[in-house]
Each structure stands twice: as C-alpha cells, then as structure tokens.
Amino acid sequence: MTTAVLYGITGIVLFSLGLYALVVQRHFLRRLLSLNIMGTGVFMVFIASAWRPAPEPVDPVPHAFVLTGIVVAVSATGLGVNLWRRMQAEKRGEEAP
Amino acid sequence: MQSLAWSIGVPLAAAVACFASVPTGVILLLLAACGAAAWVPVWQLYAGASGAYVVGDWAVPLGIGLRLDGLSALFMGVTAVVFVIAGVHALAYRLPERRRSAFWSLWFLLWAGLHALYLSNDLFNLYVTLEVVGLSAVALVSLTARAAALQYLFVTMLGSLAYLLGVALLYAGYGALEPGALRAAGEAGPLLWSVLALMSVGLLLKTAVFPLHFWLPPAHAGAAGPVSAVLSALVVKASFFLLVRLWADLFQPVAASPALTALGLAGIASVLWGGWRAFRAERLKIVIAYSTVAQLGYLMIFFPLAFHTQPFVAVDAYSGMGMLVAAHACAKAGMFLAAGSVLHELGHDRLDGLDGWGVRYPVAAFAFAVGGVTLMGLPPSGGFVAKWLLLRAAFHSQQWLYAAALLGGGLLAATYVFRPLGGAFRVVGHVEKKMPGVLQWSALALAGVSLLLGVVAAWPLDLLEIGRVLETRGAP
C-alpha cells in the first residue's frame, strides 16, 4: 500500500467520523466542528490524489482546490458561529450584535 | 460568448454596490441590469451563437471554462424573471431598516451564484458555486428565522461536503474534472458507484427530496416573502440542475440501474408525503412549502423516464422536466409572494384566521389561485404541458406507477390549493384595503407567467433542445 492510498483512506475515515459525530451530537459547536472534520477528510483525499510516481512533479491542481476549499470552510464556519451568537444574544433578551 | 462572463460579473458587482445603503431607484436599475445580463446570452444562444467561453483565455484546468447550453439557458432565463419580479416586490416589502443593505447584497450574491452554477463546466467550480448559493441562501433566511437558518446551514454544508468527496474521488480516479472529459473516461465500477452515491445523496439533501426534506418547510416558511419565493423557485432546483448534469454526463455508464428506480420511488414518496402534509398544514406558507416538496418529487420521476431506451420517451421526459422547472418556479414564486404579502399585512398566516382574505386582497388571492392552476396541472398552464409530456413518457414506456403518481399528485394539489381559498371570499365585517399594490401585482405577474408558459410552450422547449445534454440512447 502506497502512502498516497493510506492518506486517501485516512481522509475517508475522517469524513465518516465527522459524519457520525454530526448525526449523534446535539450541541451546535460540536456539530459545526464535525462538519469541519468532514471537510478536512475531503481535503486529505484531494492531497492524496496529487501524488505522482517519483520522476514526475506533484500535481498542483488539487492543492489549489484545497486552498479554495479551506476559504469556503472558514466562511461557512464564520457564518455559523455568527448566527449562533446572535441567537444566544436574542435568547438572553439582548439586542443582536 | 463574452456575455457569459458579464452575466456573472454584473450581479456580483451589484452585490458589492449594495454594501453601501442604496436608494430604491438605483436598486431598480441594478435589477434591470442583472436581468439584461442574464437574458443577453440566452438570446444569443437562441440566435445560434456557440455557448462556450474560457475566462481570460487561461486554459482549463487552471482557467475557468463556462458553458451555456439549452438546459442552463432555460434555468438562467427563468432565474432572471423570478429575481426581477420578486426584487420589485421586495422593494415594497417592509424589511427592518438595518437589514436592508444586507438583504440586497445577499440577494444579488445569490443571483450571481446561481448564474455561476448554471455556467460552470468543472465539477470543483460547481462545488464553489453550490456553496455560494447555499451560504447566501442561509444568510437570507437568517434575516427573519435564525433557528431554521442554522439547521439549513448544517444541511447545505453536509450536502456540499458529500458532493465534494465525490469530486475528490473522481479526481483521484480519473485526473480530470470536466464533465465532458470524465464522460469519455468513466466506466461502471466501484469508484463510479461510490461517487454516484455520494454526489446524489448530497444533492438530494439540498433538493429536499423525501426523506431528506425535513429542513425545507421551516426554512422556506420562516424566510421573508421574497426570499421564500427565490428559495422555493430556484435554489432547490439549482441542486436538481446539477443532478441532471451529472446523470446525463457522468453517470451514463451506470444509468440503467436500480439507482434510477430509487430516484423515481423517492420522487413518488415526495409527491405523496409533500401533498399530504400540505393538505394538513395550518399555515399558508407551510402549505406552499410542502407543496414544493411534492413538486420536486415530479422532478425526480423525470430520471427513470428520461433514461428509457426508447428515444421518444426520453425526449418527452426531458421536455416535460424543463417545462415543469420553468412553470413551477414562476407559479411557486408567485404564490409565496402572495402569501408573503398577506402575512406582511395581517401579521399572521394561520389558515383558520384567513377568512375573507380574497375580499381584502383580491389580487393576491387571485395570484395564489392562478399559481395553484399550474400546481394542479390544469390547462392552459405550463404545469399542464409539463405533466402532459411526463405522463406521455410514462404511458409510452408503460411505467404505470409513475403515471399514477403524476395523476394522484395533481388531485392532492387540488385539495391543498382549494383549502386556503375556501374561506377566501367569506365577507368578514369591515373591509379595508391598505396593501401596497406592488406587493399583490408582482405576485400576479409571476403566477401569470406560469400560466402563459403553457400558451407559448414552443419557445422554452426549442431553447431546451439546443445542445441537448441528455442524448437519446438505444436504436432510433
């Protein structure tokens, strides 16, 4: 088994763990974190797919994908946390920030 | 066609412009500009131009390739109609003042995301556009309904991630992400099967097909009127659009399979369950939201019909699907605008407290009824033409179960459309009219378009046939 395949399988395992947590956990932050873990799993599969046998250079395209993916994940996480904070503030009867 | 890049750039620029507080007149101009930016490439394609464009002449895969064909042109044209009319409606809709500029930015961002999704010719770019559409939709819902928006956020992220894992596996397997290139390389095997499962389930979740529809009613009913309209009319169909693209291009080798039957059965369950829950609902907007679940079920029935070996069955199913997308988008947006304006004026939309709403707001009630004609599939509406084509496909291929679901769904639609209309004209005491005319007439305009589509059906169907995505299989 090559390292690339091992990385790919680890990525899929991470994705499944995250999915499991998303279904089982009820707390908002835990669920948001499980989505992030799932995302990390997908990124690992992408990175593994960049591997090429020795003389060839590594494929740069998946790295660009992962960078873009991280930007998307950060924005989505930010949106989620912001929403949740406003909800908490409203629950306490405060004006939303 | 350079206009393809403009059709994404103009709404994006409008979104940025709206960060500042913009007066009503300018927003009207922006709406018109974005509508024109969408219709110019559609018109050029119809006039015979080629629909391929590479942004800035950078070669794929580092550059971005755009593609407009009949299917995306139909979606783009409908999107422009719904966004312009619902946008005019939103100008008259009372939003909290401090949310106003956020609303308009997100409105144009969602629009730009949808255009980018229709035009992208690369599975990874499609993921990005899916997220742009999903996140701006979540943010729009959150302006009025926070809890529903959070649930919607989880659902839309989960759906996109499942899709993205499919993309990663495809890239690992084939080293390409253009649907055309993958189509040539793809062969039935464990890899393609797992990709199919991941992508389909992720997108079905976003399309809200039974049993993955649980998030739709709270999100769509809790959003502000114009937001509900674009969510139900277009956003759920964006993931459906992607499903059609994937099945037509990528999953052809595995298409003759139980997976098609599974999609069809999920569709039947959506039609029945959505219809039943719409009939039992207590609030007007919940009725309309569940009716969206039911109508999306018809779109799922498209899959087993379209991949039938007899070419004319596939042609009918494909045309029926396109017509249903257009007709349902306009009708559903019109109905949500009508319900939204009633909620806006009365402060509630409980069915037991709606007696006499047809007397108070006759144009809104009429818009609701006209939209209902399309949902039931009565002539001369676009819904009738769509159902006729889908039914013909089901009869010719002798798939009676799907035919029964199409007919039964129409009956269910009649029951839930007539329930809110039952007490609409019961006169209750003093009748005062204070609703701004724009709110009602914009609803009627959209519902009217869905009715008109049945009369001018030839035009959208011709458009759909350009660069047909789903080739007919088997002997002609």
Main β sheet profile of chain A? none
Could you estimate the helical fraction of the residues of chain A in percent?
Answer: over 70%
Q: How many alpha or pi helices of chain A?
A: 3
Sheet with the most strands of chain B? 2 strands, antiparallel
Low-confidence stretches of chain B: none
Strand content of chain B: under 5%
The fraction of residues in strands of chain A falls at under 5%
Topology:
The complex is a heterodimer of chains A (97) and B (476).
Chain A lengths: L2 H22 L3 H21 L12 H31 L6
Chain B lengths: L2 H15 L6 H23 L5 E3 L10 E3 L2 H23 L7 H20 L3 H20 L3 H29 L4 H7 L4 H18 L8 H7 L2 H25 L8 H23 L3 H23 L4 H36 L10 H4 L1 H15 L5 H15 L3 H23 L14 H19 L2 H8 L11
Antiparallel strand pairs in B: 1-2
Helix pairs in contact in B: 1-2, 1-4, 2-3, 3-4, 3-10, 3-13, 3-18, 3-19, 4-5, 4-10, 5-6, 5-10, 6-8, 6-9, 8-10, 9-10, 9-12, 10-12, 10-13, 11-12, 11-17, 12-13, 12-17, 13-15, 13-16, 13-18, 13-19, 15-17, 15-18, 16-17, 16-18
